[in-house]
Amino acid sequence: MNDAAITARIQAVFPDVQPATTPNAQPRLCVPAATLPALARFLLDQPDLAFTSLMDLTGYDLAKYPSTPPSDAIRVVYLLHSLCHLHKLALWVDAPRASPVVPSVAGIWPAAIYFEREVFDLLGVRFDGHPSLHRILCPDDWIGHPLRKDYVYPAEYLGVAHLREGQHFESGPVRG
Amino acid sequence: MAEPIRPGNALDEQIHLTAVDEFLAWGKEHSLFYLLFATACCGIELMQAGGPRYDVDRLGMIPRATPRQADLMIVAGTITHKMASRVRTLWEQMSEPRWVVSMGSCANSGGPFSKWSYSVLNGVDKYIPVDVYIPGCPPRPEALIDGVMALRERVRRYRTSGERDATPYLVAGGDCAFGGHPGKDDGSGGEPKR
Ligand code: SF4
Fold first, then answer.
1. Superfamily grouping for domain A3-137
2. Within a 10 A sphere around the Cβ of A102, how many other Cβ atoms?
3. Is B126–A146 a contact, with Cβ atoms under 8 angstroms apart?
4. pTM
């Protein structure tokens, strides 16, 4: 199926899924968080879609992002691939920055278990229904979520100063 | 016809007299086993130093897979705060006397990540004592071998006289594009200590 046909096929069943306008040729579908579990199951189970592979699940903070209109959300991105039909699809799920919660797709694509832990670690998105949502890259006692635009840099970790004498961070404010 | 050259068979040409300590020091100097430990791109250069072109095996440097068999730890690559405690554990598992070479700007001072990263440790010397610093991003294998030759001299001196140099050796001529040389902190102005 081509991109337009995939979009039409999905919209026939999930009318609240809208294609985003992007400069890229490949369409991104904006999905409301509540629709995601049903949509994910649908994408995997329909034989003519058969998105068997979750290639990537990542996210980014839209604060300070040059988007129109300005948004106050964290965007979770799902990149899907069908190994039998060789077509691809990208999904966007926006979650409010204040308390971002997105349903987990770990039960549908087990690859999401690690990906969702990473997005939780770096952006603080909680994935409802994830089997064990804890940090994966940062140490367990790390404070904050580093890829958030309002992240406050640590001054030290385990008593070891973060900077050498005379250095200063060029990327943001420092805690403590 | 001239006499062919043969090894002499006089007794004094076959027997070399030395002190046991000197002999052991000679052996130690020529068998610096290093821990196979690389965390980032500098590790590629470390592998290159072990490959056929540079071949540090000829200096008696054999990579060991466990710290318990290693004399030398070459910290090749970026050390994050999370990794730092593991580095410390590996170092503690090595038997005395243990030696540490900090290879590359990252291990020296945080390198390209020193001012922009939340997670990178700015210099492995905050966790373990370092004997030789090698600047560069990454250092060439020649620089690594230069550092190792300096370290071998220290190993021999330590083995014969029991003295261990407190000041680290800094390999000169690295293209240290990022961050400062750690040598700046000790009042040497970053000059190499030859
Ligand atoms: S010093 Fe450069 S080459 Fe070495 S680990 Fe750091 S970034 Fe990589």
1. NADH:ubiquinone oxidoreductase Nqo5 subunit (3.30.460.80)
2. 26
3. no
4. 0.79
